[in-house]
Amino acid sequence: MRTEARFPGVEMDVGHYESFYLKESAPEGGRAVWIRHTAHKRPNQEPTCAVWMTYFDATSGSPRAAKQQFGAERLGTPAGSYMRVDDSEIGPGYARGAVSAGDVHGAWTLRFNDRHEVLKHLPSEWMYRRSLPRTKLLSPHPGASFDGVLRIGKERVEISDWPGMVGHNWGAEHAEQWVWIQATAPEGAASDDYIDVGAGRIRVGRLTTPWIANGAIVLSGERHPLGGIGRTYSTEVAPTPTGCRFSFSGTGISVHGTVGAPAEQFVGFLYSDPSGGSHHALNCSISDLELRVERPDHEHVQLRSERGAVYELGTHDTGHGIPIQPYEDG
Predict the structure, then answer these.
(1) Which tens digit of pLDDT belongs to each residue from 254-265?
(2) Best exposed site among 21, 115, 137, 219 by fewest CB in 10 Å?
(3) What does the DSSP assignment read for 195-256?
(4) Which are the contacts of 155, defined by CB distance < 8 A and separation ≥ 6?
(5) Of 138, 181, 169, 177, nearest to 310 (Cα)?
């Protein structure tokens, strides 16, 4: 497939990346699946593409992860699909595929549904049309419910009504540093409520911006946007490789919390920037999440997700101690 066809409007001499991914976790916590379909284009080169899979199980040690990378001829967008990489495909309501690397072999057939509207993390539509910001983020299905089967080696994992989400990001480069926090149906909330926030620091010349958060929390079916560039004064993000303390605010709402997990429950991947350089992405999709939601004229709400939330840190720091999977990127 030609680069111009896969990335409309992206010139051949420009770097670009795109990702469709899903996360689903067992209702009782402790198990989760994280699957990514990615395309990566360096300036003046044809794209590569890859399929990634991680299965988290708190009872069986470290996550099991695999990644396979392919050339541009294995990348496509069939009718009615978001992205296809080799034989793995994700689209509205379904994901199916397989990946094999080293001694990890996974295959999945999944269905999902979601009554929520698309969550556009960025507050203005023009931000999705222009070159800045250089990273775009939205969740086509922010509060989905999954059914199906995952086969991981000889193990068959039956998935029935697992809460989760489907996300989409793209752009010319990753943020200098980022944090992703997500949970569907936390304890103390309605069954299809969720929180989904991405926060990042962006390098501008020799300077790096304060943390800028974008996302939302849904309470009793009502969406409350959080963050934005005008709320950096009330945004607090204090990340470590295995956890984060945070505060986000929106109109008439503030959210304060912690998220994290033991180091052995994290997976680490190399993420390459299209124009050079790389990050380490550290992800645990069975993290513990504690939230306190404050609103004027409302009782404060305490929410919790036990071993069912996402905490992801993107960093240039290589001394974090989380093993990085042996897969190149880009």
Answers:
(1) 999 999 999 999
(2) 115
(3) EEEEEEE-EETTEEPPPEEEEEEEETTEEEEEE-GGGGGG-EEEEETTEEEEEEEETTEEEE
(4) none
(5) 181
Contact 148, 111 (CB under 8 A): yes
Residue 141: name the closest of 122, 113, 160 by CA: 113
HSE-up of 265 (CA within 13 Å, CB side)? 25
- Compute the distance between CA of residue 302 and CA of residue 323 in angstroms, rounded to an integer: 33
Query: What is the domain partition of the chain in residue ranges?
Result: 11-315
Distances (CA, A) of 166 to 28, 206, 267, 298: 20, 34, 19, 31
- From 2.70.50.60, 2.40.370.10, 3.40.1030.10, 1.10.8.590, which CATH number describes the 11-315 domain? 2.40.370.10
CA distance 301 to 292: 6
Q: Which residue has the tokens 């999944």?
A: 110
CB 178 within 8 A of CB 313: yes
